[in-house]
Amino acid sequence: MSVEVIRATKDAISTVRRTLGLGSCSAAGSRFEIMRATVWSIAAPGSKAHVNRVLSAALPTWQILSDRATASEETLRGELRGALSTLEDAGDLIELRGGYWVPATARFIELPGGVGYLLVGGVPSALLQLDSDEIQFHGPHRHLAKLPSELASLLPVEDLKSWSRLPEAPLQDWAREVFESHERQPYAPTSADVFEFYLPAKARPEIPQFKRWSEDAGNATGTLLARRRRVYGAREYRLVDLRVGRIVGACELHDIDVRRLMYALDLAGNSPVRARPLRVADQTQWLFTSELPRAEQRALAAFGTLAIPDDRPYERRWTFSRNEGLALDMLRSLGIALGQPPREERR
């Protein structure tokens, strides 16, 4: 590649980054801003953008900013499609029926303890006309240390629990309400109904949640969380009433975060999940062998990154590059027992 081509490529990247208002955003993270800007330009205001048109319009810009001459168009389009889904989960974009997308309403998310704000919504960063160092990019998320005075009166402020869909009630109170509000109906399982029961009280704390299920409830009497596998492999979760080990009543759990319920049962059974800190390079990784509830995953993604090793697919390794104290408090609220940090990090 000639010097002229290299210089032209660098100039093009610099120009595009400046136009998009990317500031400190990494090359990999720039695809999220590309998708925000593309959907906004096609769909706003009062319209909508089809996914095929969005991907086709965004592809040339991503080809420039990714700076990977050998990457295929199919690979790059796949990365952009993944960015759309990530932005939907973050609350920046909304997917409509038929493959159409629209920007979500822009708002600020206030983080607890006065540690800053998230800027959420489909408005492109370049339109905000903020200084490049005011927005700190973390994947699809945009952080601000304080509310910009020129935007404070224009955009609403939402709290972290509302944005991440965390329940207002503490874990055990939330679980108690789930049990009390779901009425079990008389139920007599057939021989084809093979249930597994979640029995954390019989498991050691270091045992991951996926190993806390058993087909044998013993002579238990009371209400348990149960699951069974339906046709085509889908799992169905229920609350079941048992009398001396036999199911006598059941109800399905619709729109309930079963994973959160498992954490509540872990805590009630005096067998909380444990997380172990590992020192990796100059950072601390928190190692889990159980999945986190969806709301916590959404919130923690704004503060850190999740890695799942290819050779250990049951592991979840979280690294928090910012607001680690807030992230650890959220984990403790699930009853998770956090191990001591590596010796060189202790104070």
UniProtKB/TrEMBL annotation:
Organism superkingdom: Bacteria
Protein name: Uncharacterized protein
